[in-house]
Amino acid sequence: MRLPCCTFAAVLLVALAGPVFSDEPDPRIEAFWVLLHEPAVVEELKLSAEQQSRFTTMRDGWDLRFFPLRNQKPEVSRPTFAALVAEAREELKEVLDERQETRLREVELRRLGTDSFLQPEMEPVLKLTDSQKEKIRAIVSETRESLQRAAAKAKEEKTPQKQLEGRLRTLKIGEQRKVLDRLTQAQRDGWTRMLGEAFDVTRLGRPAFRVPDLIDSGQWANSEGLASSSLRGKVVAVHFYAFGCINCIHNYPAYLDWQSRYRGQDLVIVGIHTPETKAERDIEAVKRKAAEEKFEFPVLIDVDSKNWDAWGNSMWPSVYLVDKAGRLRFYWTGELNWQGQTGEAQMRKHIEELLTEPAP
């Protein structure tokens, strides 16, 4: 059986990409949201200069509403996020023409992988029987559980990332074959038509999100203050921490290495100290600890957690890498090298990638 070009990669991306919110009940909400932030998708739509300007402005506004949802309770975040995505779908209709809307929908179906078979627009095309629908749901559910077990086992055994990706790829390819085996040839042909022209989904996996501006508390260590506008054209490593947090302290060697390794290059490290305990609310103590640890970079003292909430941060420590255009490209929550993980090496690699990119 010959499968549509690049479909394996599409379903693999779904397996490897972390959800926007845990337990997100509708994969299409998340898929659409991420695709709006993929440069390859925007390029595929062939927007005019006017369309590009309108789209970028709209998307930036959505992003600034999205970030604060990240640390909200699920009963708040999920419906609010769903409403935001629904609003984005409607507003996009004012920007895209019919051809562009169709192409975005085709790429979205590719991104959904096997979840695409049960989407409403597929109903009149595939005309699945109740038995087929039941079997497809069972296959998808079984694969999801297998992916979770594989990821958990890999974490326990400290399996290298590439080896884990190979296992996940095998599971997703097997899932798609099982689903297609339950379709007639006419149904398979209909599904292929709905996917449209070939799209190289290996270009996906590079979403960029507009980050919130720094909210100046008026209290800084190692700086009189920074405005986000002054950071454009620089790669920015933003790390949220609290000086009494042992996991945060374990990340300090990485920050000290970056401030030395990339000295004189277009990297700016910004610490955001958000207190967890009463002692950590002492501004002079924050400054003293920063000096003791030999931090040379600016630290924004976020006593009232305004930056923490604007970013929707939820864990000490968390590290975000922002590109020269002011967009989030990579992040790591928790201790970088926790129990053999390679967060420090991965983030260093990403920093070097971002440094090679031209300024906007």
From TrEMBL:
Q: Which GO terms describe its molecular function?
A: antioxidant activity; oxidoreductase activity
Give the stretches traversing the membrane.
Answer: none
- Tell me the SUPFAM superfamilies matching this sequence: Thioredoxin-like (SSF52833)
Keywords, alphabetical? Oxidoreductase, Signal
Per the UniProt entry, the Enzyme Commission number(s) are 1.8.-.-
Ranges of residues in domain Thioredoxin:
200-356
Annotated signal sequence is 1-22
- This protein's record includes keyword Hydrolase: no
Q: What is the main EC category here?
A: oxidoreductase
Instruction: Keyword check for Lyase, yes or no.
Output: no
Q: Which InterPro entries match?
A: AhpC/TSA, Thioredoxin-like_sf, Thioredoxin_domain, Thioredoxin_ResA/DsbE_sf
Tell me what this protein is called. Answer: Thiol-disulfide oxidoreductase YkuV
Q: Which organism is it from?
A: Caulifigura coniformis
Q: According to the entry, what is the taxonomic lineage of the organism?
A: Bacteria, Pseudomonadati, Planctomycetota, Planctomycetia, Planctomycetales
* Gene name in the database record: ykuV_1
